[in-house]
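Q: what sequence does this backbone want?
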């Protein structure tokens, strides 16, 4: 499973509509409205790198109101849940 984090800048007056349309794209698991330099963060979870390209370049970038994207590919995940499970097993 490949996870990509996509930073999205949108037309300001279309943020809710853009977020909803991006959220409906197959391969997009979540979309967050955020503060700061970007407007939305989309989490893309797909089987391979070609699928990331298909989701981002062929679909997400073509949503009306998307002005710019920046994609980051995750190569390792850390979470509190994973750490708690490890310590619960006595593996420190």
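A:
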């Amino acid at each position: 499973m490949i996870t990509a984090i996509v930073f999205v800048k949108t037309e300001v007056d279309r943020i809710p509509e853009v977020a909803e349309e991006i959220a409906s794209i197959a391969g997009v698991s979540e979309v967050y409205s955020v503060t700061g330099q970007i407007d939305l963060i989309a989490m893309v979870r797909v089987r391979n790198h070609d699928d990331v390209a298909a989701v981002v370049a062929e679909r997400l970038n073509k949503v009306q109101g998307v002005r710019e994207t920046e994609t980051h590919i995750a190569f390792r995940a850390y979470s509190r849940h994973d750490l708690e499970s490890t310590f619960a097993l006595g593996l420190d």
